[in-house]
Amino acid sequence: MADTLLRIENIKKFFHVKRGFPVPETVTVRAVDGVSFEVKRGRAFGVVGESGCGKSTLGRSLLRLIEPDSGSVTFDGQDVLGANPSKIRALRQRMQIIFQDPYSSLNPRKRIGAALAEPLLVQGLAYKRKAHERVLKLLDEVGLHSDAADRFPHEFSGGQRQRIGIARALTVGPELIVADEPVSALDVSIQAQILLLLRELQKSHNLSFVFISHDLGVVRFFCQDMAVMYLGRIVETGPIPRIFEDPLHPYTHILRDASPMPDPNQSKKFIHVDGEVPSAVNPPNGCHFHPRCPYAADICKKVSPDWHQVDTERGVACHLFDTGNTGHDYPKR
Ligand code: SF4
């Protein structure tokens, strides 16, 4: 069993925003509300959830691009949230991010070669000819011609820009990459190319990933383990094959049934779900999922479910798994 590279414990990030007219009131958005999980070395850990569930805030919080309010992040045994500026600089060399829209993170007036060399210069890893050689090697690794170094970001397609984003993340030789919706802005055929590229790079660079996506099919393809997020909380974690075979949480069950199946002969029993995702500003009491859950009981409306570690690999937060629960039956699947 691979050892743990990244451990996230009880991370919280709330935003306080003004809302309303003519008299605005301050409301609290509980974007990330007590999230914990572990990423094993060399594996890809998927974080799946609908838009607005807090997964991007979580990704940025664990790199301290956003400062979390509380909790702990441990990377290879080192305390990330307690790290001083020089230590965090050193850690950032080992933990990088790929954004959904790499264009927004590239300076439109800077040639790609200069943009890719910049992290090497800042970290003092290579200068001049050595940095240039490293840039050309990276471009080759991500499937771009060496003349890309002399061009500007606007001269590339979306897929090519994402390749540049990947190359930029790789410049400083990271061990962990947080990939935040890295393919969701791309056409399906390009998505497949980028996912295959990331998979190749994962092997050749021995990378670990936190892979954030709203698309369960993409996570299923790329990751080995996953967590399902709903309104700022994780509701289920485990290895991908086991979750797809037998989802424990009703929300995971619904997501699984809504995602395309590679085997059309495999029968599925659909659960019907009503309603929209509630707002993180004023989430429902008890289990956040209860207004949409076909198995909601009275306790679900009042009491937030505890985390149940079902075995060494799997966990779920749902009253259906409470010890001695007799209030409602487990769904037949
Ligand atoms: Fe449904 Fe209750 Fe489980 Fe929430 S705790 S998912 S409402 S059964």
Provide structural commentary.
The chain is α/β, with parallel strands linked by helices. The protein has a domain at 4-94 and 174-249: P-loop containing nucleotide triphosphate hydrolases (Rossmann fold, 3-Layer(aba) Sandwich). It is built from ten helices and twelve strands. A hairpin with a 2-residue loop joins strand 4 and strand 5. The protein is globular and about 65 Å long. Iron/sulfur cluster (SF4) binds at residues 249-250, 287, 289-290, 293, 295-296, 300, 305, 318-320.
Radius of gyration: 21 Å
Q: For the terminal residues, how far apart are their CA atoms?
A: 30 Å
Biggest β-sheet description? 8 strands, mixed
Secondary-structure content class: alpha/beta
Beta-strand percent range: 15-25%
Q: Which geometry do the CA atoms define?
A: globular
What is the CATH H-level superfamily of one domain? P-loop containing nucleotide triphosphate hydrolases
Topology of this protein?
Blueprint (H helix, E strand, L loop, with lengths): L3 E16 L5 E16 L3 E5 L6 H8 L7 E6 L2 E2 L5 H10 E4 L13 H11 L5 H14 L16 H13 L5 E5 L7 H17 L3 E6 L2 H7 L2 E6 L2 E7 H6 L4 H9 L39 H5 L4 E3 L5 E3 L16
Parallel strand pairs: 3-8, 3-9, 6-7, 7-8
Antiparallel strand pairs: 1-2, 1-4, 4-5, 9-10, 10-12, 11-12
Helix pairs in contact: 3-4, 4-5, 5-6
